[in-house]
Amino acid sequence: MRTIVQTLPGSASTDQSEIGRTFAGVGVSPGRIIGSILLMPQAVREPAVGESLTEGTSPEEASTALRTAAKAVQTNLTARSVGAFGAGREVLEATALMANDPMLVKAAIKLIINGASPERAIWDAAASVAEMLHNLGGYMAERATDVLDVRGRIVAELRGVPAPGIPYSDTPFILIAEDLAPADTATLDPAKVIALVTSSGGPQSHTAIIARALGLPAVVAAVGVTALANGTRIFVDGAAGTILVDPGADEVALATAWETSSAALAAFDGTGRLQDGHLVPLLSNVGGSKDAVKAAAAGAEGVGLLRTEFCFLERDTEPSIAEQVEAYRGVFDAFPGKKVVVRTLDAGADKPLPFLTDASEPNPALGVRGYRTDFTSPGVLERQLTAIAQAAEGTQAHVWVMAPMISTAEEAEHFASLCSAAGLATPGVMIEVPSAALTAASILEHVDFVSLGTNDLTQYAMAADRQLGPLAALNTPWQPAVLHLIRLTVNGSRDEGHDKPVGVCGEAAADPALAVVLVGLGVATLSMTARALSSVAAVLASVTLPEAQQLAKLALTAHSATDARRLVREQLPILNTLGL
Amino acid sequence: MSERTAVIASRVGLHARPAGIFVAAVGELPIEVTIAMAGEPVDDAMDASSILSIMSLGASNGDTVVLRAEGDGADEALDSLVKILETDLDAE
Fold first, then answer.
1. For the segment A501-527, what is each residue's pLDDT rounded down to a tens digit?
2. Based on the number of CB atoms within 10 Å of its own CB, is A574 exposed (0-12), middle (13-18) or buried (19 or more)?
3. Per-residue pLDDT tens for A103-112?
4. Does A505 qualify as catalytic in the annotation?
5. Domains in chain A, please, with CATH?
6. Which residues are CB-neighbours of A537 under 8 A, at least 6 positions away?
7. A317, B12: Cβ pair inside 8 Å?
8. What ipTM was estimated for this complex?
9. Which of 14-43 (A) contact B at CB < 8 A?
């Protein structure tokens, strides 16, 4: 076994024994890039229970050390909040105040006077505060995490080790981590972080989603990368999923070529079509009016998925109809004359809402989430539909509405009746639950369109949690079983007989090779993050419809997801030319 | 001892962003200010410069709180704090 010598953080030398070493993971966002790495620091270790003051340290000295550390953490967080954006900024401002909070610091000093080490004192003091907030429930309970985050930072400061969270650097770097949580991604500065590599996580993890949204090359599930030393130079290929330590001239050439081709790829002319002229409208997934304006500028032919959670998240009460109307109208106004598909509130599982979902469910992915919150909190959905209808009045956008997490034709029928009562003319549903894919024909008797949410469809078809690294290989929409469910959905639409459109709005649509397969399976429209529009358009334009159908057959009959992906990619030489 | 009551105007109550704004304003004052729910004993009043204390107070929209302070300028200081609490800070 090879020994890995860990160099000190910040040093820029590459360990000789690591040169030429390669790592293989799952490529989740294309791009070829060379840079120096910075590791996400280890989580802060808990000080020993009962750890007391070291001999020769007086309680006064220890208290001063604690005050200094708390102040330093506050200063650091305040400084970082200035550079942060949106919700990330508010989180940082609030945690900065907590770091040097008089109640917290006084409680810790009391413990120091009783003989505890400053590390143990702040650990216990923060734990009591967090427990108190947790017991208050709702919004306060969520803030308990912030108190524990601050505690970790103060202990790291006292120990003189790097603060937990994304490292801070003046120069751009490749971030290496075990996995990234949503809270980490809020403070991720795309001007500093040029690529993401994680040892854990799957293709649908938060790391993968944020990487695609920011257009950063990324590889997940690359086992062993966290053993590399800070400052190591590596080459990352976000399409192939490979990493090479201390790259040579070949990789420099590949990275330079990527820079050129990605610049060329930057433009999408606004009409998605195959080589033979078959039209495939390319739409964008957006989460608010800012996104919508960006998507329109990138040439999106409409919005295939408007996530309405932005109106609701981080709130402890339901937003009023007037507030919702204003938020939705901002999106509609960005797409005059174009289609905007609004997805009703999708709370629950990884998107809990204190006033709507029950955080104590033992199995939230199979719990009351999406459309199902209408069973337990009736009224919220109807008010949202009223707001969407009001926002649609007087705009030129063609507003369609769909419900997430529909399992049966009965649910689709009920949703369609709610839409009709609200005055919304084009109801649809998402196909994320395998039962809905299997009964698409019955579902389409009640609604005008369906949209496949491939992330959840994959996790439910494969019974594999999206966030779990060890299940990454199961959790890919290239799984032939998932492709069969998509084919059955398209067949269902044919059987129903009115040519009702089947779209895809999951991450699968953003993978240019998979996009070809989806079109070959009969999917009518693709909706994706605006960043992916140009690469998907370029690859679609290189094939004819019969070719796409041939590739879809190849993928459906493959023995594994890996085989399906490889067989299809082999037939699409343009991917290699463009570095996708 | 100066004393003022204030009715919480923020729709989300006295936490999140409104609490942060209030605590920052208290922190700028040269005197110590306490806060309690109306009707609570003086001994249970909490340090108004602590965001964690303010959050654990759990004051909702429409609740009445009591602010207390001593020393030079206490009256003016409390008046300015009442004004902050009686504005819907979440709407701005």
1. 999 998 899 999 999 999 999 999 999
2. middle
3. 999 999 999 9
4. yes
5. 17-40+166-263 (3.50.30.10), 59-159 (1.10.274.10), 266-578 (3.20.20.60)
6. A268, A269, A272, A282
7. yes
8. 0.86
9. none
